[in-house]
Amino acid sequence: MMVYLNGELIDEQDAHISFDDRGFLFADGVYEVIHIYARHFFEWDRHMARLRRSITGIDLPDIDRTALTKGAEALLEQFNGEEGVLYLEITRGVQPRTHSFPSRDVPPTILMWIRPHQSFSDRMIGDGVSVITVPDDRWAKVWIKTIGLLPNVLAKEKAHKMGVFDAVFVRDGMVTEATSANILIVRQGVLQTAPVTNYILPGITREVVLEIARDQGIPTLLEPFSVEDMYAADEVFLTGTTTEVLPVTRVDGHMIGKEAGPMAVFLLRELRQKANSVS
């Protein structure tokens, strides 16, 4: 497999990163994950806009996005599949370990690679998944898509140990998001999700799904909701780059429905149609 590392396309076996890289030492970096449908990057411009916000959020020097785009396109040419996922990571670069930033002439480390992606099976989507709720003990700048994901990793592992798909973060009684996805509920035909704040990552798929809903005349509400609201919802589902639209049918053991709800199924179909129709 080929990877893009600091301006070059090289074999993954030849890709090496210094142990002095600040991404390794401090999780001092940001990332993006971009879905590839029908051999094209889905919502590339939105992902780049979010990447720019994350870069600004950690005071990282700006990067050459034209070169980044060309590098991603070169990787895509090497990719054999129709559907995949591009991973992009940028760190503050290499410097002997010290907490303060390196001087501005230290170049960032830029790494990209593509992996094949297989969407969830129709059976899994139809049955829906189970999740648990956990306290949201993450830092107060969740809107930055940082590589420092240890709280998310620990929450996801807790969910796996309990035999469920994912964990949903709760802060002061209100639902924020899942470990790697946004979360939405449906109540009496209204699609509801918490508004983007510093405690919620502005998901690209979430944004697209809300646009699809509005275009289809589905009422949408950007307001926080409680755990009890989620338990009582007609539908619950996750949205994310690799998650797409994934129905949730059990939360903390509470049944939400015996199968995927009609709105989640509809929005997933519309999302995939939109993604695969873009040339």
TrEMBL record:
Origin species: Sulfobacillus benefaciens
A Gene Ontology BP annotation from the UniProt entry: carboxylic acid biosynthetic process
UniProt protein name: Amino acid aminotransferase
Pfam families: Aminotran_4
Keyword terms of this UniProt record: Aminotransferase, Pyridoxal phosphate, Transferase
Coiled-coil regions listed: none
Family the entry assigns: Belongs to the class-IV pyridoxal-phosphate-dependent aminotransferase family.
InterPro entries per UniProt: Aminotrans_IV, Aminotransferase-like, BCAT-like_C, BCAT-like_N, Class-IV_PLP-Dep_Aminotrnsfr
Listed GO CC annotations: cytosol
Cofactor: pyridoxal 5'-phosphate
Molecular function terms from GO: transaminase activity
